[in-house]
């Protein structure tokens, strides 16, 4: 028998699992599971130091002519360029603010239109197995096709400007939401369908009361992927088929060897992408809670 | 063992059967293999207010037979008559409940229970009001705006039964409704179901793997053979109602149980005369 008195807690250095933490009679107890998580502050400090080190290294290397400032620019120059732009400087007929607005409007429009059309088509294929069988190979071909190849065609058909940009964003997003909606439809529980039928449901009831509620979480889960794709579509569209927006700004900067401007554009784009992603993630969470489903 | 004829004679005081299944056979086409005969020439007759159980080894076609009775499956041969109307291949004639509660997780308990009313065209708000009495009766008062995930297994099964009952059919099919519950919950639901069935004058057909459950609840037990499912025998249970938990120890209970077990026991290769739970379990697995 082991009595409580025999259990002696030994003081052990933190994080070192090899030193016994307690003893029951002759048996030594070790902690194998690490309960410590890195503290947030610690991680943040390391991250800030890392970024600062990279920027400082870059600046020093450029000053010492180890890195070509002409091709790579320098952090200070990029900072100055950013300050000029956000100070309201006009560039190729627009400001950074109007370019930002342009890109965001195009990306979000493409995201919404693509998601709605894709989800709508994916869901409606539930109604007819024949239609699904007919459409499937075409969808797969379209999915496999690098959609940017469509850009020149879209410009010819829709002209330079936001329309072709949105069309490209739609082309990128539509297939993802179509596929996820279809997966959702396939996840419908056939016993649930049976049960509803036994309560007198017709096909329409089953579609609205089971198929759609089952598929919606699937569609929502694709939103995060789609916002990234829509932004990519908008940016490429701006490079090829538009004279406004962040994509155009970056492209324009490249053509006039304004490397600092390229960096500013890229930085702004990264910020937009992160904000959109965070926004959609928040939306997703809200929707999921509202729907009372766990994925 | 009683033949179907003797039994009809025994219970013929009620003229119109609540459910009459006559000579139903169901086969499934299988690609590259011989077609599978799941149910072979099964007939049963259940009178209003009766509680009848179907027991048999796994895969003997009990659930398939239920699908036929519920009109979800068209049999290759035979006919289903519910309360005097031929309902073969027609849904909506009977209430139907499965082992899984099948509550829709995105609907509240009230909205789940009121589903049949909504499907009949009633407004959601009205359906919510209408389902209050049955929720109370099923001990779910106060849980109408809870979601299924917030309820215990026993409560969910009661909600599922409430949904079935609100559908308003006199005949209710229960496919292993208590199979996933723990013994204690199951036992309390047995009492509850017995009361409820009597109060509402329901005709209940129950599928179960649990022989004690069948004896405890049924007026009559149909024992089925392994695939293809046929009726091997019918065991009447003549225990006074309400039965309560105490009936489990009575000699009549033991006799009925032994009879069912011996009928099931014959389903294994060697004939068994004295059956026990262990042999029963073997028969189930086979």
Q: Which percent range fits the helix content of chain B?
A: 25-40%
Proportion in β-strands of chain A: under 5%
Fraction of residues in H or I helices of chain A? over 70%
- Tally of contiguous helical segments of chain A: 12
Uncertain regions of chain B: pLDDT < 50 for 5+ in a row? 8-13, 267-277
Question: Could you list some keywords that capture this structure?
Answer:
heterodimer, A: 295 residues, mainly alpha, MetI-like fold, three-stranded antiparallel beta sheet, 3 strands, 71% helix, 3% strand, B: 286 residues, alpha/beta, six-stranded mixed beta sheet, four-stranded antiparallel beta sheet, 10 strands
Protein model, in words:
The complex is a heterodimer of chains A (295) and B (286). Mean pLDDT of chain A is 88; it is low at 8-17. Chain A contains 12 helices and 3 strands. Chain A has helices spanning 40-63, 69-72, 75-86, 96-124, 129-144, 151-158, 162-186, 190-198, 203-221, 223-241, 245-255, 259-291; strands at residues 8-9, 22-24, 27-29. The longest helix of chain A is centred in the last third of the chain and has 33 residues, at 259-291. In chain A, α4 (96-124) crosses α11 and α10 (223-241) runs antiparallel to α12. In chain A, a hairpin with a 2-residue loop joins β2 and β3. Chain A has 295 residues and is mainly α. The longest helix of chain B has 18 residues, at 183-200. Chain B is globular, with a radius of gyration of 19 Å. Chain B starts with a helix and ends with a helix.
């Amino acid at each position: 028998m082991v009595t409580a008195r025999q259990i002696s807690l030994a003081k052990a250095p933190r994080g070192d699992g090899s030193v016994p933490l307690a003893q029951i009679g002759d048996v030594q107890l070790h902690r194998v599971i690490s309960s410590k998580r890195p503290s947030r502050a610690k991680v943040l400090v390391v991250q800030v130091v890392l970024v600062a080190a990279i920027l400082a290294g870059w600046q020093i290397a450029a000053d010492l002519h180890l890195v070509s400032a002409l091709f790579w620019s320098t952090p200070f120059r990029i900072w100055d360029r950013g300050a000029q732009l956000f100070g309201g400087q006009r560039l190729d007929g627009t400001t950074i603010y109007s370019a930002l607005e342009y890109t965001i409007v195009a990306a979000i429009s493409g995201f919404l239109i693509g998601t709605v059309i894709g989800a709508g088509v994916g869901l409606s294929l539930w109604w007819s197995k024949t239609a699904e069988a007919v459409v499937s190979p075409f969808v797969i071909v379209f999915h496999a096709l690098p959609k940017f190849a469509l850009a020149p065609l879209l410009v010819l058909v829709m002209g330079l400007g936001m329309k072709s940009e949105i069309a490209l964003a739609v082309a990128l997003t539509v297939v993802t939401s179509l596929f996820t909606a279809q997966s959702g439809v396939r996840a419908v529980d056939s016993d649930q369908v049976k049960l509803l039928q036994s309560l007198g449901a017709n096909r329409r009831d089953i579609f609205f009361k089971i198929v759609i509620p089952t598929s919606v979480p699937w569609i929502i889960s694709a939103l995060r992927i789609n916002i990234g794709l829509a932004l990519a579509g908008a940016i490429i569209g701006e490079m090829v088929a538009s004279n406004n927006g962040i994509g155009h700004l970056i492209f324009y900067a490249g053509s006039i060897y304004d490397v600092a401007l390229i960096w500013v554009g890229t930085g702004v784009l990264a910020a937009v992408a992160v904000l959109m992603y965070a926004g959609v993630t928040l939306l997703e969470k809200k929707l999921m809670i509202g729907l009372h489903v766990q994925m | 063992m009683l033949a179907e004829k003797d039994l009809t004679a025994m219970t013929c005081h009620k003229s119109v059967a609540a459910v009459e299944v006559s000579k139903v056979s169901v086969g499934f086409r299988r690609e590259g293999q011989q077609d599978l005969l799941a149910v072979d020439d099964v007939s049963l007759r259940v009178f209003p207010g009766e509680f009848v159980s179907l027991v048999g080894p796994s895969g003997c076609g009990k659930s398939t037979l239920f699908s036929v009775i519920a009109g979800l499956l068209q049999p290759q041969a035979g006919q289903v008559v519910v309360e005097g109307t031929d309902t073969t291949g027609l849904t909506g004639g009977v209430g139907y409940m499965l082992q899984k509660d099948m509550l829709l997780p995105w609907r509240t308990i009230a909205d789940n229970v009121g589903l049949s009313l909504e499907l009949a065209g009633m407004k959601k708000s009205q359906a919510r009001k209408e389902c209050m009495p049955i929720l109370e009766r099923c001990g779910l008062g106060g849980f109408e705006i809870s979601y299924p995930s917030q309820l215990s297994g026993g409560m969910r099964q009661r909600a599922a039964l409430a949904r079935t009952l609100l559908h308003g059919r006199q005949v209710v099919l229960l496919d292993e409704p208590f199979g996933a519950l723990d013994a204690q919950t199951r036992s309390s639901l047995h009492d509850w179901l017995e009361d409820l069935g009597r109060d509402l004058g329901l005709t209940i057909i129950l599928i179960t793997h649990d022989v004690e459950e069948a004896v405890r609840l049924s007026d009559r037990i149909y024992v089925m053979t392994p695939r293809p499912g046929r009726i091997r025998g019918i065991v009447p249970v003549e225990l006074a109602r309400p039965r309560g938990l105490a009936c489990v120890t009575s000699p009549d209970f033991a006799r009925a149980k032994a009879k069912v077990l011996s009928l099931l026991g014959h389903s294994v290769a060697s004939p068994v005369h004295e059956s026990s739970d262990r042999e029963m379990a073997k028969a189930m697995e086979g």
